[in-house]
Amino acid sequence: MTDYSDLVQPDKGQDARTIHLVDKKSYDGWLKGRSARERAHLAAVGFKPDAFVHAILPGDDPERWAIVTTVADVNSLSAWCLAKLAQILPEGRYRLEGQQPGKALFGWLSAQYRFDTYKSNPPVKGGRVLLTSDVGAIGPTVAEMRAVALVRDLVNTPAADMGPAAIEKVAERIAKAHGGKLTVTKGEALEQGYPMIHAVGRAAAKHHAPRLIEIEWGKDGHPRVALVGKGISFDSGGLDIKPASGMRLMKKDMGGAAHVLALAELIMASGMPVRLHCLVASAENAISGDAFRPGDVLKSRKGLTVEIGNTDAEGRLVLGDALTKASEAEPELIVDFATLTGAARVALGPDLPALYSNDDDLASDLLAGGIDRDDPLWRMPLWDGYAELLETDIADLGNAGTSSFAGSITAALFLKRFVPDGTAWAHFDTFAWRPSAKHGRPKGGAALGLRAAWAMLQMRYDRRKKGERP
Ligand code: BES
Ligand code: ZN
Ligand code: ZN
Predict the structure, then answer these.
(1) Catalytic residue among 242, 299, 379, 465
(2) What's the pTM?
(3) pLDDT tens-digit profile of 427-465?
C-alpha cells in the first residue's frame, strides 16, 4: 500500500531534480535565463508554453537533467497541474524552482494512487517524492489524500468482498483508531427500528445481512454534525432488475458510505471540535423469494408510509430511515452522500456531484469549498413544485416519481421528507466513479465532493481555519 507521507518531504536541501514552472506570460523571460544548450534543446523539440506540456532539460552533467512544464498560471497552481508529471517521471526526488507546490501537492499524491489488490503481478513502481519548505501543508494534504484513497479503495473493491459486513469492518477500524464508539443494528432490531433498511436488504439477509452502522465521536458540548451515507453494497435493482449494462458498475453503490467514512476519519484524526455522528445504511439490493416488491407499502422509522413504485429506487429508502435516526439527536448540520440517481448523471455528467441544500449559507460554503479544493459541485433546486410527483394513491408518498422527469430532484425531495424543517442539510448525489482517467485521477472509484465538504467543515469548525473563506 502506498504511504503517501513518503511522497512529500520537507525540503532540507537534499539532492533533487528541479521542475521549472512556466506559463504563457512568464515563458519568454524564463527562457532568457536558460543556458544556450537548454535554449537550443527547447527550440529543437519545438517546446511551446501550452498547458500541461513538459520537456526534459539536459544538464551539463548527464545526471543533472531538469524538467520544464507549462501551467495555466504560475501564480495560482491548480490541484492537477503537476499530476501528469507525478505519473510519468522516473522515481526520485523533485523540487519546484522558486516556489512551493500549494494546491498542486494534492494532485502530485493523487496521481500516484494504484489499485492492484487483485493483480497477480502488479507493476512495481517506485515513488516520486516532492520536496517542499511549506512543511505545514504536508500533514493536512497527506490526510486528505489518505481519505481520497480510502474512498477509491472501498469503491474499487468488488461487491463480493465489500458487502455490509466488510463495510462494518472498515467502520470498526476507523472508530477504533480514533476512539469513536461503533454501534451496529441488524437482524430483529433493524426490522423493528429501521424497517426500510431491512426491507431493501431482506432478499440478501441470509448471506449479506443489512445493517445500520453508526460511529459516534467527540465531546457532548461541541456542535453536533451528522454524516449519512448510502451503503448499498450491490444494486441489482431488485425485482425491478437493472439491465446488464446498468448493473455492471453497481459495486460502487456504496460510494456514499465510502465518502462519509472517509470524512469521519478526517474529522476524528484532525481532532475537530464537533460531536460527530456518522451513519451508514448498508444493504445489498438483491433478488430472492423474500425480496420487497413493487406495490408494497413500507412503514418508515419516521412513521411515514412509502409505496414502492420501483425497487431500484432503494437508496432513498435506506437513507430515509438513517436520516430519521440522525435527526433524532437534533444535529445542527446533516450532510449525506449517495450514488442516488442516474438522472443526476444525465444532468451533470460524471464529474459534477449534484448538491442540494435547504440552507443557502451551507450551499455557498460547500460551493466555495469545492472551488478551493478543485473538487467542483453544482447546486440543484429542491423544487417543491415537483413534490406532487411523489404522491401515491394508497400511502403517504411513493419512492419513485410518477414521471421520469426531474429524477434527481424528486429523489432529493423524497429525502427532504425525512429531515426536520429548520435543520441545515446538504445532500450530495454523486457518481463516486470516474469512467476514464484524467491527470491525477485514475479510472474507477472516485472521491467526488469529499474535499469540498471537508473544506466547508474546516471553514465552520476548525479552530485554525474558522471563518476563513477559501
Ligand atoms: N444506484 C442507482 C443510481 C445510479 C445509477 C447511480 C447509475 C449512478 C449510476 C439507484 O439506486 C437507482 O437505480 N436509481 C434509479 C431510480 C429510479 C428507479 C426512480 C435511477 O436513477 O434510475
Ligand atoms: Zn437502484
Ligand atoms: Zn442504488
Answers:
(1) 242
(2) 0.98
(3) 999 999 999 999 999 999 999 999 999 999 999 999 777
Told to judge if 169 belongs to the known catalytic residues of this protein, a careful annotator would answer: no
**Domain boundaries defined on the chain:** 4-122, 157-465
Ligand 1 pocket residue status of 9, Cβ below 6 Å:
no
Q: Which three cell numbers stand for residue 258?
A: 465510502
Provide the residues around ligand 2 (an ion) whose CB is within 5 A.
235, 312, 314
- pLDDT (mean) for 155-168: 98
- Atom number of ligand 1 nearest to Cα 232: 1
Assess contact for 133 and 10: CB atoms under 8 A.
Answer: yes
Distance from residue 151's CA to the centre of ligand 2 (Å): 20
Find the mean pLDDT for residues 207-219: 98
Same fold, 4-122 and 157-465: no
pLDDT at residue 263, as a whole number:
98
Q: 429 CB under 6 A from ligand 1? A: no
Q: How far apart are CA 413 and CA 405, in angstroms?
A: 13
What fold is seen in the domain 157-465? Aminopeptidase (3.40.630)
CATH of 4-122, one of 3.40.220.10, 3.30.70.2210, 3.40.50.20, 1.10.3210.10: 3.40.220.10
Residues 6 or more apart whose Cβ sits within 8 Å of residue 448: 351, 352, 353, 375, 430, 431, 432
